Amino acid sequence: MAITKLHEVHERRRSRNVGLGVVLGIFVVLMIGLTVVKVTVLDPSRMTQEVSQ
Amino acid sequence: MTDATIILDDSREAGFGDYFALLKPRVMSLVVFTAFAGLIVAPIGIHPFLGFFAILCIAIGGGASGALNMWYDSDIDVVMKRTKSRPIPAGKVTREEALGIGLTLSVFAVIMLYLATNWVAAALLAFTIFFYAVVYTMWLKRATPQNIVIGGASGAFPPMIGWAAVTGDITLSSVLMFMLIFMWTPPHFWSLALFMNADYDKAKVPMLTVTHGKRSTRNHILAYTILLAGFAAAMFATPLAGWTYLVVAVVMNLLFVKGAIVLWRRDEEQAEADGYKAERAFFKLSLAYTFLHFLALMADKALFAAGFGGPF
């Protein structure tokens, strides 16, 4: 049977679900950002080595 | 009774905020500030995103050690007034959940910091978590009245980690930033213990005020404050200190030593008569002390970069 009345415990459960969703979303964004920065910003000292190779 | 009613009757189910509270957000804010300072004053730059990511990892690592602390200390947290509303004693989060979150976030933060920056910063973060969760929480806290002194090391590492995240090394400058917080922690906490009746005796935690009395605590505060001033002055031997730091260090250390002497001269009768006025003032001053020292170091770095002045 579907739940028709919302209890306070549902709100807490929702805050947990939404919170976790937001945290995972932020994690995905951070991973993309880290990847972009890591592949685009080169360490100048390494760059010289890589160019000479 | 159906399963649904059992769950609905369970008014202690945790919300997201209860899990977040496991990470001790207030402690995290100090960690973020000092780690940021370490990162800013480092001699070379870092990509802003990597800097932000490093601070986030340090904050998560600090929070994870807080969760591990709450897992281990739940038996004493339930006894003390100050801590009994924490998520575990309040019955909102189980000990196992706290342990799981603490361990997972610890591993996550250390690996992510390594991937974003370097192994020195990651190793320092791992050591900090180990130091707080194992050395302080499990070994020292219940064993010795010097728990605050040695445990303070874990709170002192963040600027060193911030610095290492940029440079990948450990130098005199970063060690002195560590010492600044390390030596500051005892007078800061003991001055609080003088006027806060935090029922540590009920929880059988050996606080100096309980084991050696308040007279001895006042002596200890003065000794550590004088040593702290020495380390604050030693910062002039590094390329970090400029005119801003000079002004802040001189003013704050004179005030801090003066405050410690006032506490040392007072006895319990005088303190009780005026409601621990001097002790409260000293505690407030201690909050400003670290904040202003690190702020001054960052201000000097900005001034050097803008072409104003230079290190002594």
What is the global morphology of chain A? rod-shaped
- Cα Rg of chain B: 21 Å
N-to-C span of chain B = 76 Å
**Oligomeric state of the chains present here:** heterodimer
- Report the total helices of chain A: 2
Secondary structure class of chain B reads mainly alpha
CATH topology of the largest domain in chain B: Tetracycline Repressor, domain 2
What is the helix content of chain B?
over 70%
Write the H/E string of chain A, N to C: HH
Number of strands of chain B: 0
Which percent bin holds the helix content of chain A?
Answer: over 70%
Give the total of domains of chain A: 1
> Proportion of β residues of chain A?
under 5%
Mean pLDDT across residues of chain B: 92
Within CATH, the superfamily of the largest domain in chain B carries the name UbiA prenyltransferase
- Broad structural category of chain A: mainly alpha
Mean model confidence by pLDDT of chain A: 81
Could you name the key traits of this structure?
heterodimer, A: 53 residues, mainly alpha, 79% helix, rod-shaped, B: 312 residues, Tetracycline Repressor, domain 2, 2 domains, 14 helices, 74% helix, flat, disordered N terminus
How do the helices and strands line up, and which of them pair or pack?
The complex is a heterodimer of chains A (53) and B (312).
Chain A: H1 8-40, H2 44-52
Chain B: H1 3-9, H2 16-21, H3 25-41, H4 48-72, H5 74-77, H6 95-116, H7 119-140, H8 147-167, H9 172-195, H10 208-211, H11 213-234, H12 243-265, H13 268-273, H14 277-305
Commentary on this structure:
The complex is a heterodimer of chains A (53) and B (312). By secondary structure, chain A is mostly helical. Chain A is built from two helices and no strands. The N and C termini of chain A lie far apart (69 Å). Chain B has 312 residues and is an all-alpha fold. Chain B has two domains: 16-169, Orthogonal Bundle (Tetracycline Repressor, domain 2); 171-312. In chain B, 74% of the residues lie in helices and 0% in strands. Chain B contains 14 helices and no strands. The interface between A and B is medium-sized, with 18 and 19 residues.
